[in-house]
Design goal:
This protein is an alpha/beta fold. It has helices at residues 15-24, 69-78; strands at 7-11, 29-33, 37-41, 48-52, 63-65, 82-90, 93-99, 105-109. The strands form two sheets. Strands 1-4-3-2 form a four-stranded mixed beta sheet, with helices on one face. Strand 7 (93-99) and strand 8 form a beta hairpin. The longest helix has 10 residues, at 15-24.
Amino acid sequence: MLRKIDCVMVRVPELTPAVEFYTRVWGLTPLWRDETSVGMGLPETDAEVVLHTMELPDDRGVHYLVDDVAQAVLTGRQAGCTVREPPFEVAIGWCAVLEDPFGNTLCLLDMSKGPRPALS
């Protein structure tokens, strides 16, 4: 049974600049570190973004919730991200796709229109 997202694996070429970037630009907090990876904490969940240098398959299916997609895109661009898909409207708000300086996809989503109704 699936219970929650435990972590999102993000491959980077070097840990130190990636930790600095994800801390400075996206406000993540380093939680733990070993020789090949660093667990980064998000403020509203115990799920982690794990920056790593291991040879693992890429997965681009995770979306990160932000307060405002347009502002997040601006922040990302100013920090060196490439906009792969500019903000577009979705049922609950706005979405955009960025690429970080390390070649990783960042799918950003806001809920400016509110959440979908819960199933009854």
